[in-house]
Design brief:
Layout: H1 2-41, E1 46-47, H2 57-60, E2 77-82, H3 87-103, E3 109-114, H4 123-134, H5 139-148, H6 150-153, E4 155-157, E5 160-161, H7 165-178, H8 183-190, H9 193-208, E6 216-219, E7 222-223, E8 225-226, H10 231-244
Parallel strand pairs: 2-3
Antiparallel strand pairs: 1-8, 2-6, 4-5, 6-7
């Protein structure tokens, strides 16, 4: 009987220690979380990587990188790593980036970079279409065509991405014709090693900059990570702060 009683006492002691340990850990997490939340709630607008060293400009933009709008003074550069079939990239384009391109034209340099993800079956094809158009001086027009008619090639329905390369490529050729490209040259360039090398270099630069998903946006080398619910307001505020420096 005393032996059994001792076993019970030992087990109770272990359980109590475990419970106390859990309580201490939970309290610590809550305290630390509260501090982080408090500090974060004090932010205004967007956090463009304040306190972190910027990604070097030569990583974010190469001499042959495509540009949508360029500022003569080069004061503010926005670099976006994107996947044309990414639904979030399309939402950013429709609700933010297209407006920013227009509203800040001539005041910022806007550099889109390719970062097609494996989860998007036509991301590579669309990137090749954009780069093939760039070889004929029509990147901007193809960039807009791909996003403006996103539902026409990127999706089957509201919940399913398109994976039919033949149909997508036919759409891309249609855009090429509409924006005045030499379609035969466009088709050849789409499958050329030169175009693929450009995309691969963009991806490598993105990885070097810490990009793991799309869209990932940098403002003057700092990653844009909004801390408020209004992404557009945070983005514009960050641009205006950089322009005012």
């Amino acid at each position: 009987m005393p032996k059994n009683q001792n076993l019970v006492t030992q087990k109770s002691g272990v359980s109590t220690n475990v419970i106390l340990t859990i309580v201490v850990v939970v309290v610590a997490v809550l305290v630390i979380g509260g501090v982080l939340l408090f500090n974060r709630s004090g932010d205004s607008g967007g956090d463009a990587g304040a306190g972190q060293p910027p990604v070097p400009a030569e990583v974010l933009r190469k001499p042959d990188s495509n540009v949508l709008t360029e500022a003569p003074d080069g004061k503010v550069t926005v670099t976006e790593f994107l996947d044309y079939q990414c639904s979030t990239c399309h939402s950013y384009y429709s609700q933010l980036m297209k407006k920013v391109e227009n509203d800040y034209a001539g005041r910022i340099t806007f550099v889109p970079r390719n970062f097609p993800l494996q989860m998007h079956p036509l991301g590579q094809n669309a990137a090749r279409a954009a780069e093939a158009a760039a070889l004929q001086g029509k990147f901007k027009e193809m960039y807009h065509a791909l996003f403006d008619d996103w539902a026409g090639w990127a999706t089957v329905n509201a919940s399913e991405l398109n994976s039919d390369e033949a149909k997508a490529n036919a759409k891309f050729e249609q855009y090429a014709q509409q924006i005045g490209l030499d379609v035969n040259r466009f088709k050849q360039d789409m499958v050329s090693p030169k175009v693929q090398a450009k995309i691969d270099r963009d991806v490598a630069d993105g990885e070097a900059a810490g990009v793991s998903g799309t869209p990932t946006i940098f403002i003057n080398g700092h990653k844009f990570e909004p801390s408020s619910g209004n992404v557009e307001q945070a983005f514009r505020q960050q641009l205006d702060q950089e322009l005012a420096k």
